[in-house]
From TrEMBL:
Transmembrane helix keyword on record: no
Domain EF-hand: 4-39, 41-72
Signal peptide: none
Pfam families given in the database record: EF-hand_7
Domain of life: Bacteria
Keywords: Metal-binding, Repeat
Matches recorded under InterPro entries: EF-hand-dom_pair, EF_Hand_1_Ca_BS, EF_hand_dom, EF_hand_pair_protein_CML-like
The protein's name: EF-hand domain-containing protein
Record PANTHER family: EF-HAND CALCIUM-BINDING DOMAIN CONTAINING PROTEIN
Length: 72
């Protein structure tokens, strides 16, 4: 069961990871939210979101960080 949820989460994550390098930058996040959800967010809003999930402080969101946030 948990595996199914994790697979689904990974699919969501991969949608945000536009260049497929396994990390979601604020830029990628903003682009995807704007294109898929049709709601524009500002660069600083995207940065804030990524920063709030970025636990190792590299400025990008890894799947592990995304997953940890979902299980919080
Ligand atoms: Ca990426
Ligand atoms: Ca990170």
């Amino acid at each position: 069961m948990a595996d199914i949820v994790e697979t689904a989460a990974r699919k969501v994550f991969e949608r945000y990871d536009v260049d497929g390098d396994g990390l979601v930058t604020a830029d990628e996040y903003r682009k995807v939210v704007t294109e898929l959800e049709g709601s524009a967010i500002t660069e600083s809003e995207a940065r804030e979101l990524i920063d709030s999930l970025d636990t190792n402080g590299d400025g990008r969101m890894s799947f592990e960080e995304f997953w940890a946030a979902m299980n919080r």
